[in-house]
TrEMBL record:
Its cofactor is FAD. Pfam families: Lys_Orn_oxgnase. Belongs to the lysine N(6)-hydroxylase/L-ornithine N(5)-oxygenase family. PANTHER family: L-ORNITHINE N(5)-MONOOXYGENASE, MONOOXYGENASE. This is L-lysine N6-monooxygenase MbtG. InterPro entries: FAD/NAD-bd_sf, Lys/Orn_oxygenase. The keyword Flavoprotein applies. Transmembrane segments: none annotated.
Length: 451
């Protein structure tokens, strides 16, 4: 079991913390960047790996990369990535603002590989984070526990771990082999034999569900897919240029300072700009596929609208879904072999954040304007939360639109409040793998509830 000290630890190597790492290298190259560490539980950097479908495109302009809105001249820009891999001219010739999703994912990996000061380590799964206090009760740091038994102490902690996948209660009791959440689609579908004529049910009426409904037709060629949703039908995102201005980084100030009822109105009216809708091209493709299926009399594809899944069970060698018609209240059974969930993510804070909040004695998890976790009492340590602050910072908080500017704000906040010099022994332990002088001896791990 090893213990290390760093000044700043960022948990998760998704776009939020990659943008932070870039900001640290460009804004704090002397000292802080060299003593910062990003840890990632996976073996590599990949963006939404479960949904890296070959034809899927990003729904955000390439100019909203990890750095351009903060520093258009940065070497970490998406344009420089294209130049580095020899694809800039071809991309320009495409005439599109929206790169393919696999291309964005490769860009993120390229950024991770291009870091020269901030360290990034893979296969480092975090199991718990605990606050550290001195004899006076002042919060002085954070102790992060990893699955391999090692620990990392830091003064600054940045969580960019994303929200937990949402598995609706109705499906929780089904065997794992029967249910695939969109976050694991590619990996799980690849494990299935292609020749089996699966009866597949896709749950949901938004982008991820629609993409799975489309993809499974070729991924499992003999399957019969049915799409079930609560809504009256598939809808496109509302994407007027006026509402898109609420995705500007400058819109955060107005949202953060707004009254609670105004925030609620904004979030409600902006919901269809990011949730419960589809990219127009995806919608057109699906409608054409359904039309052709009817025209040719195949009857392979089915879309069921305005129905709730009120129960799900395994019966012998199949899954039985109970569907309740929202219009009539009538109940019918739908039997299938596989359920694909386009059910999104849990709205509550991630379990790791909730575990830290419990350790701090917080009833509610709140952050200030610069994304710093609000903690009671005296503190010389800080924790920042990325991508989970939609309620206070607006609908764009979890999206690529905010990454570059938010990273700049967090970095500047750390630099502004940073004490002169580093805490004694900090950084020294990073090289030796031993606790810094005076570092607390880690206690036994504290389990973190998965609920």
């Amino acid at each position: 079991m090893k213990h290390r000290d760093v000044e700043l630890l960022a948990i998760g190597a998704g776009p939020a913390n990659l943008a932070l790492a870039v900001a640290l290298e460009e804004l704090a190259p002397d000292g802080l960047a060299d003593d910062s560490l990003v840890i990632e539980q996976a073996d590599t950097v990949a963006w939404q790996p479960g949904m890296l479908l070959p034809e899927a495109q990003s729904q955000v302009s390439f100019l909203k990369d990890l750095v351009t809105l903060r520093n258009p001249c940065s070497r970490f820009s998406f344009v420089n990535y294209l130049h580095s891999v020899g694809r800039l001219s071809q991309f320009i010739n495409m005439g599109s603002l929206w790169p393919y999703r696999i291309e964005i994912s490769d860009y993120f990996k390229w950024v991770a590989d291009s870091l020269t000061r901030v360290r990034l380590e893979y296969a480092r799964r975090c199991t718990a984070v605990e606050p550290l206090r001195d004899a006076d009760g002042t919060l002085t740091g954070w102790l992060t526990r990893l699955a391999d038994g090692s620990t990392i102490r830091s003064r600054y902690l940045v969580m960019g771990i994303g929200r937990d996948a949402h598995i609706p209660e109705e499906f929780a009791s089904l065997p794992a082999r029967r249910v695939v959440h969109s976050t694991r689609y590619i990996q799980r579908i690849a494990e299935l034999p292609k020749a089996v004529p699966y009866r597949v049910v896709v749950i949901g009426g938004a982008q991820s569900a629609a993409e799975m409904f489309d993809a499974v037709q070729s991924d499992l060629p003999g399957c019969q897919p049915t799409m079930v949703m609560r809504s009256i039908g598939l809808k496109t995102y509302e994407n007027s240029k006026f509402t898109n201005e609420l995705y500007f980084p400058t819109a955060v100030d107005g949202f953060f300072g707004a009254r609670p009822e105004a925030r609620e109105q904004i979030l409600q009216e902006m919901h269809i700009t990011n949730y419960s809708g589809l990219n127009p091209a995806t919608l057109e493709k699906l409608y054409s596929a359904l039309y052709l299926d009817r025209l040719t009399g195949k009857g392979r594809l089915r879309v069921v609208t305005m129905h709730d899944v009120t129960s799900a069970r395994e019966d012998s060698d199949e899954v039985v879904l109970e569907l309740t018609d929202r219009r009539t209240g009538e109940v019918e059974e739908l039997r299938c072999d596989l359920v694909l969930l386009g059910s999104g993510f849990v709205r509550a804070m991630p379990s790791l954040v909730r575990g830290l909040a419990n350790a701090l004695g917080l009833e509610d998890v709140t952050v200030n304007r610069t994304y710093q976790l609000d903690v009671p009492g005296a503190a010389t340590a800080r924790c920042y939360l990325q991508g989970v602050n939609e309620a206070t910072h607006g609908i764009a908080d979890s999206l690529l639109s905010m990454q570059a500017v938010r990273a700049w704000e967090i970095t500047n906040d750390i630099l502004a409040g940073r004490a002169d010099g580093r805490p004694e022994g900090l950084g020294e332990a990073l090289a030796t793998g031993e606790p810094a002088e005076g570092a607390p001896v880690p206690a036994a791990p504290v389990p973190v509830s998965a609920n």
